[in-house]
Amino acid sequence: MNGEELRQANKRLALKLGAGAVVALAFGFALVPLYNVLCEATGLNGKTNAERARPAAVKVDKSRWVTVQFTGTVMPGLSWAFYPKVASMRVHPGEITRVSYYAKNPTNQTIVGQAVPSITPGQAAQHFVKLDCFCFKQQALEPGAEKEMGLTFIISPELSKEVGTVTLSYAFFPAVKGS
Amino acid sequence: MTTATVSTHDDHHDHGHPSGIKRWLFTTNHKDIGTMYMIFALIMFLVGGMMIMGVRAELFQPGMQLMKPEFFNQLIGVHALIMIFAALMPVATGMANWLIPMMIGAPDMALPRLNNWSFWLLPPAATLLVMPFILALFGVGTGAVATGWTLYAPLSVQGGMGVDFAIFSIHLLGISSILASINVVVTILNMRAPGMTMMKMPLFVWAWLITAFLLIATIPVLAGAVTMLLTDRHFDTHFFDAAGGGDPILFQHLFWFFGHPEVYILLLPIWGFMPHILSAFARKPIYGHKAQVYSFWAIGIMSVIVWAHHFFTVGMPIPALLYFMYSTMAISLPLAVLFFCWIATIWRGSMTFETPMLFALGFVILFGIGGLTGLVLADVAADAQYHHSYFVVAHFHYTLFAGGIMGAMAGVYFWLPKFTGHMYDEKLGKTHFWLTAISFNLTFIPQFFLGLAGMPRRIPDYALQFTEFNMISSLGAFALGLSQLLFVYIIIKCARGGEKASDRVWEGAKGLEFTLPSPPPYHSFTTQPVVK
């Protein structure tokens, strides 16, 4: 190759490699939806259904018990008191159960919060069916107001027999504008 | 420019070039740029080292003595970022600039102007990283990034403006590495001397080719991740914010999708040095040239599919844990091939133990310890115990200090006489090796035991029972830091004069770079050699 040909060849290859880097950047952003799809399909990150589930006629499996533990965390920026009324309970898979969380706004202004649930272990997330939940919409508390917030759920009998304990954790965030 | 003679690009004669500061600012010469990369790396190595001296001084005894915890957190994070991006990567790139054209018989790098750019992005990037420390002295902001080098969300979403400085610094460092990598790939694929087929390429060149591909594939993912972090912080997006439907764990996936290949990006060029050095001082040909090339490829490809072993404890389904455990352990197989080739290369050789050989042998042994302790951490069941403990800190310093920095020093000592035309002071070099090797082990062996005993990393204070081992570790670290001043002295002394180095430099040295005079002419090969 003479000098000019080599320069052209170098330029072409450099542009191709540069395009490769741009594709890698796009791939990095594509990983975001890919991750969400993967998590929804596998329950990888413990995310539960975000909307009201249709109550299906499921048979109650009286032969086994599952321990359900409840926790509540208030995230920075939200000065509420927030905790489950019952910390732990035993239920049969298929049984419709109702529990409640307590929240209080001790400040002197109205605050809107949004609870985000998470299930541990992740593989139980798909089998934790929420029929009704305070996490489905934002919750507003007047100054000094307190509230008992309900949660109705069924543990699906399809939950793997290896799972004896399911932990449901709520993190209460200050509501995000416009969501 | 004050160029006296105007030259065309096809003109390979040694023409006049600007002198003084302009020579360095505008240079497109691979040797000048390589030198600047290495000087920059050495300076940042000392800066990052000074930071960790502060950390070890604080950890000398329990309780808070010298600094606030926030400042401690800033020191450990910036130490890591500097050592990885501003010391180890630039020294590897500097050596690539110097050596690749000489090793493949090319006059210069393929894209000389791009080369100048890739270097001159580094000083602004390093300045951005360190500037928040200085701003904090004047009461502006809260100091540098305090999240550790991994920048995990949500901490990094909530952190002060130091995080923004780090994000922009990473953008610049990333662009610099990608440009340098493009240059390396184009040079290797297009500029080889006639007759130098891919399989005849020296192993350092091969290692860098794969490093460059890894950089082009993974640095953009990091750039994307920190950009998402930036928009989460300032533009109301919720990539990593659970309140808005995002997921902080996503950041860990994105980060380590880059971060794990990064480990091999740091180490591959060093593995490329080893066969050259070991075969020269054992006076035997390299054992398993092809096997090493295939191992490089295997490690490069596998490095992008094992990332989640960095956060086993985050909560993953069992099948995912098993997959990442087995794939991680599988990487030790091609790595074992490399170790075997290194040992087989020196097996029954007529060995002499000059400084580069000492560093290379030290590398093989200490990096071996780093690799074996990595296997322990790859075990999901064991990792639950060792995760985020000092065991991890000791492990990755065995791989990145003994494997990375000591390996890089082996390369520097080996080729320094070629670069400068003078032999370095052999006695001082050997002293430097023994000081480094002993104080390194003194620093990090106690940390293995601290980790096994349960001391967590990234903590400025600790329980009383850890005191003695922390004192030993701190004393070792001070000795290690001071020993590196000797290294600086040796390099300066060698650059300024000393016994004249022959063209071949070492009795057993092979390769095209040793057919050139020491120091080599400004343009390496005016006519390309023919390789048979």
Architecture overview:
The complex is a heterodimer of chains A (179) and B (532). In chain A, the strands form 2 sheets. Chain A has a 5-stranded mixed sheet, with no helix packed on it. Chain A folds into 2 domains: 42 residues; 109 residues, Ctag/Cox11 (Pfam 04442) (Sandwich), CATH 2.60.370.10. Chain A contains 1 helix and 9 strands, in the order H-E-E-E-E-E-E-E-E-E. With 179 residues, chain A is an alpha+beta fold. Chain B has a single domain, classed as Cytochrome c oxidase-like, subunit I domain (Cytochrome C Oxidase, Chain A), CATH 1.20.210. Chain B has 16 helices and no strands. In chain B, helix 9 packs antiparallel against helix 12.
SSE layout and pairings?
The complex is a heterodimer of chains A (179) and B (532).
Chain A: H1 3-42, E1 66-74, E2 81-84, E3 88-91, E4 96-104, E5 111-120, E6 128-133, E7 139-141, E8 146-155, E9 165-174
Parallel strand pairs in A: 1-9
Antiparallel strand pairs in A: 1-3, 2-4, 4-8, 5-7, 5-9, 6-8
Chain B: H1 21-26, H2 30-58, H3 69-104, H4 112-120, H5 122-137, H6 155-158, H7 161-190, H8 203-234, H9 248-282, H10 289-302, H11 318-346, H12 355-378, H13 380-386, H14 390-420, H15 426-452, H16 467-496
Helix pairs in contact in B: 2-3, 2-4, 2-16, 3-5, 3-7, 3-9, 3-14, 4-7, 5-7, 7-8, 8-9, 8-10, 9-11, 9-12, 9-14, 10-11, 11-12, 12-14, 12-15, 14-15, 15-16
